[in-house]
Design goal:
about 220 residues, alpha+beta, five-stranded mixed sheet, two-stranded antiparallel sheet, 6 helices
């Protein structure tokens, strides 16, 4: 009869209820685990202080972009940026001040970049930028904009006004490079020249001319 059917239906629903509850809880747990994993992966890729790519993630992305430039003959460049005398600032005003300056320099550098550019903390007082679709002169312009942006106004720290500058080494992608490490070494060499020139300046590794096919001419070494 109707009463018996209703009782049976209720019993069936009650029997399924634990499974439904478990299913809902499992779904929520899976979502929570996925979000936790995503956050952990993000933390592994981002520099803890500045929030930009850490060195490992920057190199992974930059190597991919370097390979693409080589494969298709596109222009590309790397900027290596060093905050001048950051260690002296840490010694005189404290590490908290140095960290605040590093964070603000990163913000100012980022403000000059395109969405396609790759920014990372390379280590210590150094930031690195990979510029895709950028020829040597364009890379020098980008580096000079960064230098000017950082030096445009002093940094305020408590009651002090701190003048901060950066030195920038520029290196282009060319066919003479056998690996991404070669581009890094050239940018490091250019940065060293900038420091030796008195800092607060931009220097570049030697520009490799393109051949008649529009490709970088091979570099011949003695």
């Amino acid at each position: 009869d109707g009463a018996s059917w209703g009782t049976a239906l209720l019993a069936g629903v009650l029997a399924l209820l634990p499974a439904l509850v478990v299913g809902v809880l499992a779904l929520h747990l899976a979502k929570a685990l996925a979000e936790s994993t995503r956050q952990k992966q993000s933390l592994m890729m981002d520099d803890e202080l500045t929030g930009v790519n850490n060195r490992r993630q920057f190199l992974r992305v930059a190597d991919r972009e370097w390979s693409r430039c080589r494969r298709y003959g596109d222009d590309g460049a790397m900027l290596l940026i060093d905050i001048d005398h950051l260690r002296r600032i840490n010694d005189n005003l404290g590490i908290r001040c140095g960290d605040a300056i590093l964070l603000e320099v990163t913000r100012r550098v980022s403000a000059t970049l395109r969405q396609s550019d790759v920014l990372g903390r390379f280590g210590g007082a150094e930031l690195a930028v990979f510029l895709s679709h950028t020829d040597p002169l364009g890379a020098l312009d980008a580096a000079e904009r960064i230098r000017q942006q950082v030096a445009a106004s002093p940094f305020r720290w408590e009651q002090a006004h701190v003048v901060v500058t950066v030195s920038v080494g520029v290196a282009q992608v060319h066919m003479g490079q056998t690996a991404m490490d070669s581009l890094i070494q050239e940018s490091e060499a250019a940065l060293k020249i900038a420091k030796e020139a008195g800092r607060n300046c931009v220097r570049t590794s030697s520009i490799v001319p393109r051949n008649s096919n529009g490709e970088n001419a091979p570099v011949t070494r003695p």
